[in-house]
Amino acid sequence: MMFTSNRYLMGEFVNPLWLKSLAWLVAIIIVGLNVWLLYKVFWVDWVSSFKLLRMDLVKNNLVYLS
């Protein structure tokens, strides 16, 4: 995108402003979805798995809560 947006290199075939804006919007959406996926995988699933493990240990009397 940076190469085709350079007027010196591309001359009259440079990307228009609407295409650059669309590319930035798509990039922001992809980064946002990746951050959301990392949050879901490493925070929500991680925390819920520890909660389930703790409930299972307490249920089987392997851990006593104080």
Would you summarize the structure shown here?
The chain is mostly helical and 66 residues long.
Description:
The structure is a single chain. By secondary structure, the chain is mainly α. It has a domain of 43 residues. Helices cover 71% and strands 0% of the residues. It is built from two helices and no strands.
List the SSEs and their pairings.
Elements: H1 7-10, H2 17-59
Oligomer state of the chains in this structure = single chain
Structural class: mainly alpha
Residue-averaged pLDDT: 81
Distance between the termini: 59 Å
Radius of gyration: 25 Å
Key words describing this protein structure:
single chain, mainly alpha, 71% helix, 0% strand
